[in-house]
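Q: I'm writing a short explainer about Glycerophosphodiester phosphodiesterase for a general audience and would like to include a description of its predicted shape. Could you first generate the structure from this sequence?
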Amino acid sequence: MTNLINFAHRGASAYCPENTMSSFVRALELGASGIETDVQMTKDGHLVLIHDESLERTTGTKALVKDLTWEEIQTLDAGSWFHADFADERLPSLEQLLELTCDKGIIVNIELKNGFIQYPELEEKVIEMIKRYGMVDRTIISSFNHYSLRECHQIAPDIRTGILYGEGLYEPWVYAKGIGADALHAYMYALTPELVAEAAKHGVAYHPFTVNEESMMKALIQAGVAGIITDYPDRLAQLLSE
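A: Of course. Here's the predicted structure. Afterward I'll give you a sentence or two in plain language.
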């Protein structure tokens, strides 16, 4: 049971502003063995960690990530929306997260946010950064854009990929194998213990999201999932230690 990956969703996002260095550092303090994050690209090609295509919700700026440069994005306050204690928190780069995790044995789940906006060469840039930090064997690339996952597999078949989806797939391990994916990042209600067991027989792991209630965590641990994505890594860490 203790080998289950405790993925902190956008870091410890229940306690800190999501996808910030404060959130990532706090996740490690709370016992996370993995960090889940979202990557997009600035106007000048920098890889920035943010969930929404728009900057409005987390910085108050009515602009899209793709329309601002890295320098412009670094002037934005990405913490005050969450709490005044995090005023002047900046949006981090993928490089900053990999610097934090590369020597700590942490698994990093990088979600490519290219469902609505197609960032040129996003796959190549992310993979190059993963390789630069020696994180090939400790990274999972996920996306709701399964064409993008297929491209990642073709570029770097040694980097694991995870299919994000929200509803029931028929024999999802067959679909995963068809695009070279290693994991199923399913909405937590889109799986059953039987599906988890059958996928495992075919070498495909389940990493459901976003699981915050302890009762559901316990059920998924019992079902045999390989990882759980949660806003509360401390809750999951406590259950795994018991």
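A: For your explainer, you could say: The first strand starts at residue 5 and ends at 9.
Q: Perfect, that's easy to follow.
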